[in-house]
Amino acid sequence: AFSTEQPLDGQHKAHAVVKTDRGLELAELLSNDVARSVANQTPIGELVRLATADEVTQAKQQQSKVAQLISDANDMARIHQLAIDVLDAEYLFDGEHAVPYYLGEFAAQFALLRTALAVKHKLLRVDLTPFIEPAPTAGGCGAGGCGCHANEGHE
């Protein structure tokens, strides 16, 4: 759900520009009653405005580049001997930011892969994102663990 300061007159499935922690993104409206849709939820971003037809076309053109980005990411991962498999990717609304989603272990060499992808695809930012969030370490209870289970099974 997204918050908004100004009511928007958009129909179901209309495209809108939203601001998230990742930047501007293109989204589809699932409801034209924003106040009702966020009543019991913490918004994940702000509904900025309805998208123009040109912006929707531009976003679709950007998404047509996803297959090449995935292919290049996997090729470059092999070159850098990274044990990952890029399964999906997306371009954000600005066209200067891509998010490839991968399976595998994080490695320090990700910086090399991000830089190589950014240069080849003329991007300002590439955020490699795990397809599945890694399991918590250090005893559970979230990132870093609480330690309350640290001695279980070690009697």
Characterize the structure shown.
26% of the residues lie in helices and 26% in strands. Strand 2 and strand 3 (23-28) form a beta hairpin. The strands form 2 sheets. The chain has a 4-stranded mixed sheet. Strands 5, 6, 7 and 8 form a 4-stranded mixed sheet that branches. The chain is α/β, with parallel strands linked by helices and 155 residues long. It is globular, with a radius of gyration of 20 Å.
- Main-sheet strand order equals 1-4-2-3
Cα distance, first to last residue?
A: 47 Å
Number of strands: 8
Oligomeric state of the chains? single chain
3D shape: globular
Radius of gyration: 20 Å
Q: What are the segments in which pLDDT stays under 50 over at least 5 consecutive residues? A: 142-155
% residues in beta strands: 25-35%
Instruction: Give the number of helices.
Output: 4
Instruction: Profile the largest sheet.
Output: 4 strands, mixed
Describe how the helices and strands are arranged:
Layout: E1 2-3, E2 15-20, E3 23-28, H1 34-37, E4 45-50, H2 53-63, H3 66-79, E5 84-91, E6 97-104, H4 110-120, E7 125-126, E8 129-130
Parallel strand pairs: 1-4, 6-7, 6-8
Antiparallel strand pairs: 2-3, 2-4, 5-6
Entry keywords:
26% strand, 155 residues, 4-stranded mixed β-sheet, 26% helix, alpha/beta, 8 strands, disordered C terminus, single chain, 4 helices
In short:
It contains 4 helices and 8 strands.
